[in-house]
User: Fold these one by one.
Assistant:
Number 1:
Amino acid sequence: MSLYEKTVKLSKLIVRAKAIYEAHRESKEEADFFGTVKPFADEVDAAADLWEQEALLFLQEHPQKYVHAAQIVQAADNARRVGAYAHFFDTGKAKFIQSADSALYVLESLDNCIKE
């Protein structure tokens, strides 16, 4: 799987996490940890790990003016956090949305670099 495909996959997972979060905030429904929460969090973790490794290699080979290694590491951490907390409606909304949007911004920025 190419870096572009990994970037798209991780972006879709974060968007899905935002939708899950909003749905759980509205319904106040408790999620089944082992049946729902853990599998989704594991999927996001795995995608973030693969993306982070390949993105850092890409930046080593193709240094960018506006995307840096620290941003990649932080975006991967934010993605993992979002994946873990998406099913918990009592998570602070501002922090959750900021983490998700921050990760999406870096993913979009890297995507633009890849396309150039």
Note: The CA atoms of residues 32 and 68 lie 37 Å apart.
Number 2:
Amino acid sequence: MNNKGFKSGFVSIIGRPNVGKSTFLNRVIGQKIAIMSDKPQTTRNKIQGVYTENEAQIVFIDTPGIHKPKHKLGDFMMKIAQNTLKEVDIIMFMVNAVEGWGRGDEFIIEKLKQTNTPVFLVVNKIDQVHPDELLLFIDKYRSLYDFKEIVPISALEGNNVETLLETLKKYLPEGPQYYPADQVTDHPERFIIAELIREKVLHLTREEIPHSIAVGIDAIQKRESGNAVYVNATIIVERDSQKGIVIGKQGSMLKEVGKRARVDIEALLGSKVFLELWVKVQKDWRNKASQLRDLGFREDEY
């Protein structure tokens, strides 16, 4: 489909960890495709959210939060975030009005100076700060970079999100509809299911399990008798102590993770789901290239 006047393009959402990128993406797309957690660095891969309406299609790319890498996985996440800047029509640099200016922002602005792509400053969480503070906050960023647009929003409350979408559309080129109107992401279901399970572990274990977990999907089967989908997944941790935490007393934590993940997976697949979870220790998996590859982190794709 290539209607005359139809606009389409790719928009990268970039920013320090935990500024609300995934919350924004989920708000705009209306489905849970990016995991949300109050822990930084929960997004590890490019998650594309596709927003389609009659006159335009915007493909959002949610990058890993930019931070100083501490291990091979961190290097990989940084590489994705930086490469994304070269591939898109617009860059949305999202900042968190509550946390204020940080050295990570300085690092990102240096990266932005190396690109010719139009950059929007999107100030999130405006519902949590006084308007006077907000103006000072915006002035600080404006003095450091010539942003094409500055749009304050609240991704959680939905404030000004429509305005942002309208402004993005003005900058998009005319182009084809890349995805069918009812498609909201280009990630395979397997990837999203793994992310939903990982989100539940992060929510439920709080500080005890940091980023040293991954989820591998062993099997997704639809059996001929009935419409149910059977999912087998393995939660991978780095230490035996973490395994104990994820399983919980008499399996209580793992059971709760499974219960909550199943609700989201059923909503995603539109059918009844039987979810079986295992927990496995793979020491120091984040620094082992072969294990990163097995879990779907392949550098050559980016």
Note: The CA atoms of residues 113 and 145 lie 8 Å apart.
Number 3:
Amino acid sequence: MAIPAVRPVIVRASRTGFRSAQRLAHIEVSEILKIGAAAQRLKREGRPVIVLGAGEPDFDTPDHVKDAAERAIRAGQTKYTVLDGAPELKVAIAEKFRRENGLDYGTDEITVGAGAKQVIHNAFMATLNPGDEVILPAPYWTSYADMVRIADATPAEVACREENGFRLGADDLERAITRRTRWLLLNSPSNPTGAAYSETQWRPILNVLKRHPHVWLIADDIYEHLVYDGMSHVTAVALEPSLKDRTLTVNGVSKAYAMTGWRIGYGGGPRELIAAMAVVQSQSTTNPSSVSQAAAIAALTGPQDFLMERRAAFQRRRDLVVQGLNGIDGIRCRQPEGAFYVFASCAGLIGRRTPTGVAIGSDSAFCHYLLEHHDVAVVPGSCFGLAPHVRLSYATSEQNLREAMKRIANACRELS
């Protein structure tokens, strides 16, 4: 499966003398952000756009977390902290890993960054050289591939078939590994598909990694609290402790605690890796926000009962969206196990025409049609390495979701 095509940036001097770096030659601002900007433009024009593109919970940050941040400000906790996380936060993260994941990390095996995204970026910058490869099960979060490229390495896609629940097959992983493979990056539950791995589904993947000691694992657990139908989240290293010395377990407070804007992510891994990542961070952002760190301590150590309530709300929304999409001719939607996305096939719509005679030639064209003519913003699957699909986020109210399903159904009925 080919990496999604992007418009190359021409690297040359402008009239002002500006010349962009060669590493940006095939990298642009995320398509998700572009779609969000287009939706906001239409909203400013007075259009009733429903945005189902953002990976952001619509719930508010819990009050006890906001209170902790306010207390930190009043107490003068507004100075620099240790560059990769205050000791108090690292202790809270270590306890979280023990309590929820059965993992034992010392504070020198923990790093904190400005979001889980920075943690992954730091790992790549600290470990990748030109010619190295990172295996990305596709569909994948769109930023993964570009973060690999910025680190001068090569993303190696492995297609995850819908009939396998969009999960990585062990045989496919085995075939993808070369002497240049440095990392496997696996997100469970997944953005964009919502696919999650049980112990049984993780085990063959981990067995492959055990046979290839030069391949390290990034386990992106950011959606761990959003699993449904009684499923339990499984953390890779807890299942296979022998891989601990070459695994980075990544998480954060953004999704479960509705703290996307606070920008706190963290990871646990071998101390040599964590130290190298600290070098990278020391020359970029240095420490994350001191106030946000105080809030993250409250999130990780405070009441957790609301997580179950929000998970139940997301499951109801998932069921509403899956049922609605599967009732539309031309769309097929698998029921995901976790996160707050569905990844629906629109293959049955390709080739149909809009009322003005414009052909729907791709998932991107379908998304453009939905936004411009029916005021619903969704993201094409081609952004995530698998077309023709669309990703819908159900991190919005049930009222919005019901209206969006009506609009999408009407849009598809108008196609001929």
Note: The longest helix spans residues 305-326.
Number 4:
Amino acid sequence: MRNWFRSTIGGLPRLYWYLWTGMLINRVGGFVALVLSLYLTSDRNVALPVAGLVVGVYGIGGIAGVLLGGVLADRWGRRPTLLLAHFGAVAVLVGLTFARPIPAIAVLAALLGLMHSMPGPAFVAAIVDVTPTDDRSRAFNLQFWAFNLGMAVASVLAGALAEVSFTLLFAVDASATLLTALLILWKVRETRPTPPARPARRTAQKSSGGLHTALTDRAYMLFVGLSLLLAILSMQTSTILPLAITGDGLRPSVYGAVVAYAALLIVIGQLFVPRLIDRWRKGTSLAIANVFLGLGFAAVSLADGVLGYLVAATVWTVGSMIAAPPNAAVIAELSPAELRGRYQSVFYLTFPAASFIAPAAGGVSLQYLGDWHWIVCGALGLVAAAGHLLIQPARERRVAQQLEAERFAVPVAG
């Protein structure tokens, strides 16, 4: 047990744990977005189409927040970006508590989406800044674990608080966000690296620029494209899977049980993943992860009862757990030190993109293909797996060059 603890948790920088704690607190309290539509329809008596539009505006704000957060993390620094996002979110949550006109709520929802999405690139960039290369896989594994643990707790709290008072719900969310902001203000110093020194001049010139640098980075965009396939597969659980379960004549509560079971597997098993995959090349890990994801969703085509769906969930959840650490580590490796925030923001765009593609294409696919939709998902997993194996040699050569350049970058004192 001592060896497991040391290899899984021990040895990470103290600053990493402050960031990790802030993410966990913020995620546990970040449940307003989960019940925004319920608040609008049950407490504000808003029609369903209008409620859907307001929630959609929150998503649009999230897209803008991802891009803005990446740019500010590189220009202003990680710490100022995190403080702006969290203190800004507190102000918006207070505003939502007292807002009554629907247009005002819509504006505040867009701002909340903006503030909620801004910290993502800055958090991850700061983790990369302070964590040694060899420890990043463990660091991101723990981050993924904290995210899922926080989401599980947030879902339970959201349902309980919504039954008591939406005002209380907003207040608790704002308090958790404020607590995260104060922790960052107190314990998190600036981590943004200085520009590379003279010996890395050629690399620095190549990587200097804005978002277009990431968007025109061929090696990075190939990886982002494959990550989009993974995100589309993962998004099946929250978009198309409920339709399949109810289509088999099962109660909606079965869907909730399957999702809760998958989350429980991650909370229990994620901490053991690093020891399993540390000896594998990252591209190989991602290929195996995508195979599991594909097989898990393909297995849905055979499921017609609770047991079948639980077996399928077990397989795809194993894939999700294997994918998390190497996926984040590769993004960190491919990102030039002075553009980490921007590179992270480009990657984070895969989530809203998948949130649109998965239900839009999946609904049509399920209607016309039936259970063959899940076979197509399985094939997508195999395509993504093959893609990771094909790009692995060139990506590893690029990473070696990137690591050599980063030797000349030093953290900013702060």
Note: Residues 198-207, 410-414 have pLDDT under 50 and may be disordered.
